[in-house]
Amino acid sequence: MKNKALIWFGSPHKVGYTAQMVNELANALSDDTEIFIYNCYEENPRPCIDCGFCKQQEGCSSSDLDGLYAALEESNILIIASPVYNMGFPSPLKAVIDRMQRYYNARFSLGKKPPIPAAKRAYLLLTAGSGEGVSFCIIHQQLEQMFTILNAKLKKTVLLSSTDENPALEQALEKIYDIAKDINQS
After folding, report:
1. What is the pLDDT of residues 155-180, one digit of tens each?
2. 134: buried, middle or exposed (CB in 10 Å: 19+, 13-18, 0-12)?
3. Fewest beta carbons less than 10 Å away: which of 102, 114, 145, 155?
4. Dist. CA 17–CA 169, nearest whole Å
5. Under CATH, which number does the domain 3-184 receive?
6. Model pTM score
7. Cα-flanking dihedrals φ and ψ of residue 120, to 5°?
């Protein structure tokens, strides 16, 4: 089976540390892995407004994420690549995460179990200006319920910290290549 990897890219910088980590991972993946990158800053997703649409029927009242939803449902790999801002995600990526509410409501309001049948392996590529600290724990807590609803299991996380001090990307490469190996072996 060919791997289909969906990357939610949550950085405003196309050549920053987060982008470098994504590029290293993408280059290390086998040619059998199809990669779709959703750039949150370029796509500028609308925020969830809790309109109630997804409580009544599958889908979302806003169509701006229809392509992302289709890619998510077809993928078997989900990679979230993002800097950490104020112990959380940048707002465009947070909007995407919040819009996964449609799958929560598919499960709990509409009774679709599971809302996404295709199981996924999830990976996090995070960058942070300072050390790990509380941010790392908060990020995992924010994603735990979403991963369950998306039928995803978090496998590995890479955190490149202290980016304010210009760290060498090499400190994260071993973990990035370990993720690539994990994906390539499936």
Report:
1. 999 988 878 787 778 878 999 999 99
2. exposed
3. 145
4. 7
5. 3.40.50.360
6. 0.95
7. -130, 150
